[in-house]
TrEMBL record:
Domain Fe2OG dioxygenase, residue spans: 182-289
Chief localization: cytoplasm
Record's GO cellular component terms: cytoplasm
Phylogenetic placement of the source organism: Eukaryota, Viridiplantae, Streptophyta, Embryophyta, Tracheophyta
Entries under Gene3D superfamilies matching the protein: B-lactam Antibiotic, Isopenicillin N Synthase, Chain
Gene Ontology molecular-function annotations: 2-oxoglutarate-dependent dioxygenase activity; metal ion binding
Subcellular location: Cytoplasm
Organism the protein comes from: Acorus calamus
UniProt entry keywords in alphabetical sequence: Cytoplasm, Dioxygenase, Iron, Metal-binding, Oxidoreductase
Protein's name in the database: 2-oxoglutarate/Fe(II)-dependent dioxygenase
UniProt superkingdom: Eukaryota
One Pfam family this sequence matches: 2OG-FeII_Oxy
Substrates-to-products reaction catalysed: L-homoarginine + 2-oxoglutarate + O2 = 6-hydroxy-L-homoarginine + succinate + CO2
Similarity-based family: Belongs to the iron/ascorbate-dependent oxidoreductase family.
Amino acid sequence: MASNFKTIPIIDISPLLKKRDDPNMSEDKGVLEVCNLLDRACKEAGFFYVKGHGIPDSLINAVKDVTRDFFDLPYEEKNKIKLSAVTGYRGYQRIGENITLGVPDMHEAIDCYREVTPGMYGALGKSLEGSNMWPSNPSNFKLLMEEYLGLLIDLSRRIMQGISIALSGSPNMFEGERAGDPFWVMRIIGYPALSDSTNAMKLDNDIGCGAHTDYGLLTLVNQDDDITALQVRNRSGEWISAVPIPGTFVCNIGDMLKILSNGLYESTLHRVINSSPKYRVSVAFFLEPNFDAAIEPLECCVQHTGGIAKLERAVYGEHLVRKVLTNFIM
Ligand SMILES: N=C(N)NCCCC[C@H](N)C(=O)O
Ligand SMILES: O=C(O)CCC(=O)C(=O)O
Ligand SMILES: [Fe+2]
């Protein structure tokens, strides 16, 4: 359960990455220090910043630049890759199309998912079958995003190794049938400035993305510098801002890791309000379990939390599909 945190910790994960391929990594002092910090952050806030992650600033910034360039295009151009049930819920959604708690979100986005081929997960994966829709403009968009995706899949799995050591002492808890062949999601998002409501594009409300938890294991958000908009809820209900720190990712725990940890780690509520006069972009990457994984509290976590499994088993793909189908009315 989240505490009354007032700030979100910053964790330098470079000691963890340095020992990435060392079979005895979980005995390394530097690694254990990082795991301790991860453990504390996951218990207290469910949110932390990572630095020392090895992803070049130039790539982090280029990803935001092409995102801004894409959302700057006319609506007709963006809508060439329109999201629908037929595209497996991949592609572009206009402002107000995504819904949180029944209220339209004041953001536009491109949603991407790991490819699901026909029949791959049977009935479970049917609604998400498809491959990603990339815009042809900006011309380097797809290449850049795919390079970025490859690096973030690897990075997020390394952070999960640290979390695995924190929970169980072994780096391999999320290998095999839990998350050895992980699903992933990426949302490329733009939040109009509040002042836009005086222009042609009248905003219905000021909530860029309503309060929600993320669905999977671990989220890594690459957010715009200079605009404070992401807010995280602490136990007493205060909204704590995740102020941008250039060169870092904002990381947070998803629903599946909450279950696996038997509630030791929280999938913390968060929301986005862009009250600045500038358009805000962010790119959120979500590492998820195997699509067909049945997720239940890990034995070691049950032991640490009084010996009783407090959270119910969930099939990850069912959880995701249920969410996606209620995020859009179509
Ligand atoms: N894949 C993830 N985590 N997407 C997060 C989007 C949150 C908003 C969504 N309308 C909702 O209500 O969940
Ligand atoms: O834009 C952000 O900073 C966060 C977005 C988010 O929470 C999400 O897409 O799940
Ligand atoms: Fe989120």
